[in-house]
Design brief:
alpha+beta; 136 residues; 6-stranded mixed sheet
Length: 136
């Protein structure tokens, strides 16, 4: 495991973090990064024909047991932000109609500003690296 990955959490802490993240999603206070630096996210959404409603549904099905680690944001000016990685497993159908069990790498940035919260889903794609779960 990478030395920058933090798994030093209790289930209760991660349950609370996930609840905040999913509350943002339920309220529509979230975005999935689809800019030019996030081609994997775009490809994943296209490969599994995930419209906005299905994307939201998948994000709301993430469980505490899917938590892997957190890490510090490395972008200049954002070093104080903590990013949370969950890797749930879903049965999805690709564009050819073939069912596949997919490990979905999701990385969240929970942003609190004044009295409001929003979450940015930085990564939303098939897992492409080794992970270890914190609570499995």
């Amino acid at each position: 495991m990478n030395e920058h990955y933090n798994q030093n959490y209790t289930k209760e802490t991660i349950s609370a973090v996930l609840s905040l993240i999913q509350n943002c999603i339920e309220q529509g206070n979230y975005t999935i990064s689809m800019n030019n630096n996030r081609q994997e996210n775009k490809d994943f959404v296209a490969e599994y024909n995930l419209n906005t409603k299905r994307q939201k549904k998948l994000l709301l099905r993430i469980k505490t047991k899917d938590f892997c680690h957190s890490l510090k944001n490395t972008n200049p000016g954002y070093e104080n932000e903590v990013l949370y990685v969950f890797v749930p497993q879903y049965k999805l159908f690709n564009i050819d109609g073939i069912e596949k069990v997919v490990d979905v790498y999701t990385k969240f940035n929970l942003i609190e500003y004044r009295n409001s919260r929003r979450t940015v889903v930085i990564s939303f794609h098939e897992r492409n690296k080794q992970i270890s779960y914190c609570f499995r």
